[in-house]
Amino acid sequence: MIKYFKAMPSLTKFIVFSFTVILIYTVAEFFTKTQHDTLTTCLYACFGGEVLSCALIKVFKLKEEDKPIPTTMMSDLLTEDEINDLLKEENKE
After folding, report:
1. pTM for this structure?
2. What pLDDT digit, counting tens, does each position of 33-78 carry?
């Protein structure tokens, strides 16, 4: 179990930690039958926001990995004569 936890990516570890904290707090709140409105709001906002930010980081990382790398070269778009004409124009200036 410990080897598996060490092999996890950091974001996954943090998400597991966040859900564990939320679960422990919820169970403790239920069994003590007390209400701490401000503390509850802050705890859920803090860890919920962190989980949301971790999810967004993962989503945008996956989107970046899926983007194809552009491999179009100038020679693929223009003929040799057009390239030579452009080079001549640049040399005149």
Report:
1. 0.58
2. 888 899 999 999 999 999 999 888 888 877 666 666 555 555 566 7
Is residue 19 within 8 Å of 51, Cβ to Cβ?
yes
Q: Helix (H, G, I), strand (E, B), or coil: what is residue 33?
A: coil
Distance CA 51, CA 82 (A): 54
Helix axes 10-32 and 37-66, enclosed angle (nearest 10): 160
Neighbour tally for 12: CB within 10 Å: 13
DSSP 36: -
Tokens of 72: 């179009």
- From residue 23, alpha-carbon distances to 6, 10, 27, 38, 89 in Å are 22, 20, 6, 17, 70
